[in-house]
Amino acid sequence: MIKRVFITGGTHGNEACGVVLAKHFMASPELFSGFSFDTTVMLTNVASIGTNTRYVEEDMNRCFFKADLDDPTKTATLEARRAKELNAVFGPKGTSAAADFIIDLHNTTAATGVALMMSPTDELGHAIAAHLIALDPSVKVCNWNATQADWPMLPSVGKHGMTFEVGPVPWGVVDGAVYKQTRRLVLAALDYVEAHNAALARDGPWSSSTVQVHSFVRSVDYPRDASGELAGVIHPQLQGRDFGRLARGDPAFLALDGQTTIPYTAPEEEVEELFPFFINEAAYYEKKTAFMLARRIDRPVQVAKQSPQYELS
Amino acid sequence: MIKRVFITGGTHGNEACGVVLAKHFMASPELFSGFSFDTTVMLTNVASIGTNTRYVEEDMNRCFFKADLDDPTKTATLEARRAKELNAVFGPKGTSAAADFIIDLHNTTAATGVALMMSPTDELGHAIAAHLIALDPSVKVCNWNATQADWPMLPSVGKHGMTFEVGPVPWGVVDGAVYKQTRRLVLAALDYVEAHNAALARDGPWSSSTVQVHSFVRSVDYPRDASGELAGVIHPQLQGRDFGRLARGDPAFLALDGQTTIPYTAPEEEVEELFPFFINEAAYYEKKTAFMLARRIDRPVQVAKQSPQYELS
């Protein structure tokens, strides 16, 4: 049973749709009453919300490795310390006390639409995704790197969890359409958790389904000159095409002369088709990531079927 | 005659298209050879480029009032000090030594397209605008507040100058299409300056033209609650509609419930039609500006006619 749910905003303080939505949820407890579980809404990187920056000293959404949380000497940055505080609230990670489900609200400057980022092994996360895709077919699912044993992202502290990544939105901006869509889908996710609890309580019915998943493979950097400065930018023909097909030889970058196209080159041995996402995310210039690439797979998942007692809205 | 031209980028360090374009221009001096005037390209708020923020201590594009530049005690912030350094390079403001023409490269998260912001009295600025509109009819002209005797923006230091404002682009992002369009039009502006010098040298020919100008009238804030927090965001129907018509009663904001529309209300005595711009500019949340409003007028301007000696490209 899902008993303790957390909705968190401001893990990146300049991702303003999520911050404003979290504040709205905190001021609207009636939205979370009547469920079979408790929902707590909170702001996480409060310092970076105050400065309207992604982070103050370190990207907090890379501070939640279990080894770092458990290491008492990992306190060098404001964000490392805050991650430990948060781990005490909705963790400790990897223990039976950890929150059952965490939704962490994010925005990206990339045209991802609503992209739900989660562990490849999180069955509930994928069931929620299946429900949200049924409501809004534009919703995408991404899996964190499947070759890792642990992940450093905030929602990984919970037994289940997801990054609710929505774009495109500039830093510091609340886009009305994105805000409205996110609000609706987050509340619908809680509706599904309620249906999940109901199905658990009566042992069903469950339905077999599949979810299309974009599974992280690798990142691609911008072209750079000898001193590491940008030598090209995302090509206009690739801009905004997150989750579309990218074939070898397609325009990927535009050189700074504004005219020369730099095509996408994949390693020769790579024969499978990959799909770009996080194209031109502002925060990833410093991470040397122009876009990420995913393989696309269909993942089976068991979902709680609707019942007369609980009609999904 | 125009002898000294400056192209400046990074007055707001996170407006990355302008920063990257200025760096490209600095690395490409051949683009500025063969003209009858000298062109210097430089980065202005270097500290804020380093932190990828609009400013470090104060908005530098409000530090160029002549009274502040001339006041030796106005040195409290990094930006106030840097403004004085820059004034020594391409000023001093209001003197015969000041640069003849300054193009300051900016970006906005608002869907302004290319908007040229200038003094209402700058004849050369408007002639350049007329030329650029002939090349690209999407170019818009905005005038700074006509009721002021002086302006605090960087290009106001020159005898002529303009803010080259281009959007929508998120902070920290280089958008390929915006970059390409900006690069082309900045170089075309220099072509016009060359034609202007040639026309001055031979006393013509000049042609009478008009330029559509958006003249700043007032700013409109977001709806806010009692504690000053946002109570609404730009309505999806207004988002991206910069320089469109906004009538009394049109949707302006969406309340945080994601459903309630808050209409645009104009003072009763305001009978003229106004046009919104800078809709949802990220940096203006803290300035309590959801959008600005302009009246639209046709301004006469004298432009250098093309000649066999100098074909405008």
Based on the model shown, name its key terms.
homodimer, 313 residues, alpha/beta, three-stranded antiparallel beta sheet, 6 helices, 12 strands, 26% strand, globular, AstE_AspA_cat (chains A, B)
Please tell me about this protein's structure.
- The structure is a homodimer of 313-residue chains.
- Chain A is α/β, with parallel strands linked by helices.
- Chain A has a domain at 4-214 and 299-304: Aminopeptidase.
- Helix content of chain A is 24%, strand content 26%.
- Chain A is built from six helices and twelve strands.
- In chain A, helix 5 (123-135) crosses helix 6.
- The two termini of chain A are 21 Å apart.
CATH architecture of the domain at 4-214 and 299-304 in chain A: 3-Layer(aba) Sandwich
The CATH class of the domain at 4-214 and 299-304 in chain A is: Alpha Beta
Structural class of chain A: alpha/beta
**Shape assignment of chain A:** globular
In quaternary terms, these chains amount to homodimer
End-to-end distance of chain A, in Å? 21 Å
Computed CA radius of gyration of chain A, to the nearest angstrom = 20 Å
CATH fold-level topology of the domain at 4-214 and 299-304 in chain A:
Aminopeptidase
- Can you give the mean pLDDT of chain A? 96
Strand content of chain A: 25-35%
| Main sheet properties of chain A | 9 strands, mixed
Please name the fourth-level CATH homologous superfamily of the domain at 4-214 and 299-304 in chain A: Zn peptidases
- Helix coverage percent of residues of chain A? 10-25%
Strand order of the largest sheet of chain A: 2-1-3-6-4-5-7-12-11
